[in-house]
Amino acid sequence: MTLITDVRLRRVLDSRGNATVEADVLTESGGFGRGKAPSGASTGEYEAIELPAQEAIANARDDALPRLIGEVHAGNQRDVDAALHAADGTDDFSGIGANSAVAISMAAAKAGADVLGAPLFQHLGGTFRGNEYPTPLGNIIGGGEHAADATNIQEFLAAPVGAPSVEEAVFANAAVHQEVHDILADRDLPAGKGDEGAWAPSVSDDEAFEIMDEAVETVADDFGFAIAFGLDVAGAELYDEDEDGYVYDDGVKSTEEQIEYIAEKVEEYDLVYVEDPLDENDYEAFADLTDRVGDQTLVCGDDLFVTNVERLEAGISVGAGNSILIKPNQIGTLTDAVDAIELATRNGYESVVSHRSGETEDTTIAHLAVATDAPFIKTGAVGGERTAKLNELIRIEDNAV
Ligand SMILES: C=C(OP(=O)(O)O)C(=O)O
Ligand SMILES: [Mg+2]
């Protein structure tokens, strides 16, 4: 019933106005699924390869479609994703493009769910899933590769850890976003928004820490539950090999100084989450920081692990981090993403399912987080391509999908 009878690929816009790949998968019994590839800006060195959209579409039409249409059942995600790997023939999806691969992988999952008449999270996670919801990490203030002339640290993320429901958590993050707007206005600090909708004021990182601290406290008082915050440092973007250190507006920090700096911020602000505090090649420094603060906060590898089981295994073996960011397009298929989550879970690492800075209205990651019992999802706080996922989580919680 879920035999794939057609796959249609087209170029559509992402949230930055760039071209991305949209895939439709149709099945024998009338099932339909549509998936769209997101796109990073602060991409990790070891990510699967995104090709220009037109090239990814042309290559996937030539190589992947013949292996899918009439050959594979959309309901069997491992078969779909194995066919994509076989069609690609490389170990980084540089043949058909990770953008074509992930769009088709997600579209097939939705077509499989459609035939079953089940919500996507249930098709992916099984019938016993759907009662645990991830805490949304909301990007509130940001800079780095996502906004010019703003903070050096890429993301300051609200974390409503005490929220009684996903709905309350989503609204709390939006309120923190609004509160930061008001604080910036009080301080006469004009601010536009970065690629993910976070405020991008021209302030020092220290001032951003103060503003976040004030905003989460105010909103926590209003909402009546605990709201903490965390960071995506995007350390690989700050690290400069020639300088042998992390380059900030106010100077260069050696690796030891960077570890000290992050550890101090964890203590000072009770940070619950620190993503990519160090360079993507420095497992050892990740392990040192995890040793120091891993019992107080999540030390999460994004560019470090790139959703890749081999890189995660290397990290686990030396105690680098205690958490992994999961971005399906970093690795190319849902199967690979779920394998990374399962390996993480078996080894006591928490999974944080994540959007990209270039996004679409696709909601697959909301379902993936629920399907895998991921404790966190990072998918912004405001902006249509971000609220698409947040509102889908509210619907999942309300049994309305
Ligand atoms: C979402 C992120 O940004 P990008 O998509 O630009 O890699 C990130 O670094 O976690
Ligand atoms: Mg990151």
UniProtKB/TrEMBL annotation:
Pathway: Carbohydrate degradation; glycolysis; pyruvate from D-glyceraldehyde 3-phosphate: step 4/5. The active site is at residues 196, 327. It holds the Pfam family Enolase_C. GO terms for cellular component: cell surface; extracellular region; phosphopyruvate hydratase complex. Its EC number is 4.2.1.11. CDD domains: enolase. Residues 130-400 form the Enolase C-terminal TIM barrel domain. It comes from the Archaea. GO terms for biological process: glycolytic process. It is found in: Cytoplasm; Secreted; Cell surface. (2R)-2-phosphoglycerate binds at residues 154, 327, 356-357, 378. PROSITE patterns: ENOLASE (PS00164). It catalyses: (2R)-2-phosphoglycerate = phosphoenolpyruvate + H2O. Mg(2+) binds at residues 232, 275, 302. Belongs to the enolase family. HAMAP family: Enolase (MF_00318). NCBIfam families: eno. This is Enolase. It comes from Haloarcula rubra.
